[in-house]
Design a protein that fits this description.
Blueprint lengths: L1 E5 L5 H13 L4 E5 L4 H8 L2 E2 L18 H8 L5 H14 L10 H13 L4 H26 L1
Parallel strand pairs: 1-2, 1-3
Helix pairs in contact: 1-3, 1-6, 4-5, 4-6
Length: 148
């Protein structure tokens, strides 16, 4: 499946592709386009829009105080406790004013914004940041095991 979002990715628009590839659609292809073109290009290409401004045709957007990552977790009923913890971290990193949601959120936000400042394109950001999410997910798994 093709998934489409706005270009110039930061937290949610890197975390969501990671989640999609790991838990929803391993063969997912991602497209990044100017914000104003997302919905039109989604219709043209038959792509699934995500993390776009609210739109009647976009199911995977911020809603009810949740970031898109959290919405995907909910919609696809991902019940992995490590993903739930990761979702709280991503929420804090992505939602303005919520950086203290978890101790890790501010750090994730700083890293994501640092990658954005490097001038790399969106595909390079996914390639470089996916290992970060793999490591954070592994850490979350260890934390949830210790609590069980």
């Amino acid at each position: 499946m093709k998934w489409i979002t706005r270009e110039h990715s930061k937290v949610d628009r890197v975390a969501c592709p990671w989640l999609i590839r790991k838990f929803i659609d391993p063969g997912a292809e991602f497209l990044f386009v100017p914000a104003a073109a997302v919905m039109e290009r989604a219709r043209q290409l038959g792509a699934i829009p995500f993390d776009v401004p609210p739109h009647p045709e976009a199911k995977f957007v911020h809603r009810d105080g949740k970031c898109t990552f959290e919405v995907l977790v909910e919609e696809y009923r991902i019940s992995d406790p490590a993903v739930a913890l990761l979702a709280r971290i991503v929420h804090g990193a992505d939602i303005a004013g919520e950086e203290s949601a978890t101790p890790q959120s501010a750090g994730l936000k700083a890293i994501a914004e640092g990658f954005a400042e490097t001038g790399r394109d969106d595909f390079d950001r996914l390639e470089k940041e996916f290992p970060l999410y793999d490591a954070l997910y592994a850490w979350c798994g260890k934390q949830t095991e210790q609590r069980a």
